[in-house]
Amino acid sequence: MKWQGRRRSSNVNDARGRGVSGGRKVAVGGGVGLVIALVVFLLTGNPGTLLRGIGTQDATVPSGNQQVEYQVTQHEQQLYDYASVVLADIEDTWNTILPQEGADYIEPELTIYSGMVQSGCGLADSGVGPFYCPADQSIYLDLSFYDTLLNRFGARQGDFGMAYVIAHEAGHHVQTLMGVTGQLDRLRTQVTDGRLTQEAYNQYSVRFELQADYLAGVVARYMAGRGYLDPGDLEEALSAAASVGDDHIQRQAQGYVNPDTFNHGTSAQRQHWFMTGYEAGDLSQWDTLSALI
Ligand SMILES: [Zn+2]
Question: Ligand 1 centroid to 168 CA: how many Å?
Answer without folding.
Answer: 6
